[in-house]
Design brief:
The model has no long low-confidence stretch (mean pLDDT 81). A hairpin with a 2-residue loop joins β1 and β2. This protein has a domain of 53 residues. The chain has a two-stranded antiparallel ribbon. It is mainly α. It is 44% helix and 6% strand. It is extended, with a radius of gyration of 21 Å.
Length: 96
Amino acid sequence: MVEGIIYRYRCGIAWRDLPDTFGVWQTVWAWHKRMADDGTWDRVQARLHEHADREGFIDWDVSVDSTIARAHQHATNVTRVKKGSVELQESPDRAA
């Protein structure tokens, strides 16, 4: 089960695309959900990160590819026309 969960994280695939070698995807998902809900998965990941960092296996350099960093439609404050009226894209407390 854990290998199936890690495989899914590493590949970035949907649960339903998990290879059959890991078993039924719904079962792997259920294990992951149960471990995530009770905090087990967070503790496992924290311990693995601590160990990998201590051994020097983690390179903390980060690179972001802007071609996949999309902004939500409400991330801008551009006005748009909606059914004949102008709708402002800003929070209510700023709109006043």
